[in-house]
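Help needed: design a sequence for this.
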């Protein structure tokens, strides 16, 4: 039997894999994502909002393969809007994805092609099936980092047009200390 070459630490989702990929997004890179542009401009653009680590056991674009990743979003807000990922569609629109919350708490914001938008509660152990044709974004509504494990098809691709064109149909805002889903006016 051959030893495994890849490991997940289930306590924090950390990956130990060959050729670990990584990226980070700072506030200054998240142009036009948050509703309150003035509040965004006042914050330090070097602030890290989220990091992603992932494993590509096959070349991106390979049909029939899978990728595995971990996203960590810091706690914080721009105005009254919580830190979140950019959010995307998959380029091949029918490609689905699994998310599992490892630590922290948040909301998974989902928008389908008709613009219908809803949110699922993310809490340690929550397992989310993101169906194809559904744009997805993770929002950290807690006061500690949220860490989310994901598994998605290697040919899915990422289409961030959801931010520039018809966006998510709602935003998650803090009101009196709690997250609320507010229909987007922008
Ligand atoms: C992969 C996926 C996640 C996100 C990650 C960062 O399909 O959904 O790995 O890519 O949570 O979010 P985005 O890509 O929206 O910046
Ligand atoms: Mn995805």
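Sure. Designed sequence:
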């Amino acid at each position: 039997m051959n030893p495994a070459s890849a490991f997940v630490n289930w306590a924090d989702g950390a990956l130990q894999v060959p050729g670990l990929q990584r990226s980070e997004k700072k506030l200054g890179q998240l142009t036009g994502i948050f509703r309150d542009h003035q509040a965004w401009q006042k914050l330090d653009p070097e602030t890290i909002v989220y990091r992603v680590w992932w494993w590509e056991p096959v070349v991106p674009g390979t049909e029939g393969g899978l990728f595995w990743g971990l996203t960590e979003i810091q706690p914080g807000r721009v105005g009254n809007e919580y830190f979140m990922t950019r959010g995307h569609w998959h380029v091949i629109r029918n490609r689905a994805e699994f998310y599992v919350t490892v630590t922290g708490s948040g909301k998974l914001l989902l928008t389908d092609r008709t613009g219908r938008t809803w949110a699922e509660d993310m809490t340690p152990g929550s397992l989310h099936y993101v169906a194809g044709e559904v744009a997805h974004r993770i929002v950290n509504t807690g006061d500690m980092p949220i860490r989310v494990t994901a598994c998605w098809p290697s040919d899915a691709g990422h289409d961030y047009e959801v931010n520039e064109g018809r966006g998510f149909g709602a935003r998650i805002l803090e009101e009196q200390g709690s997250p609320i889903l507010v229909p987007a006016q922008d």
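The chain has one domain: 7-183.
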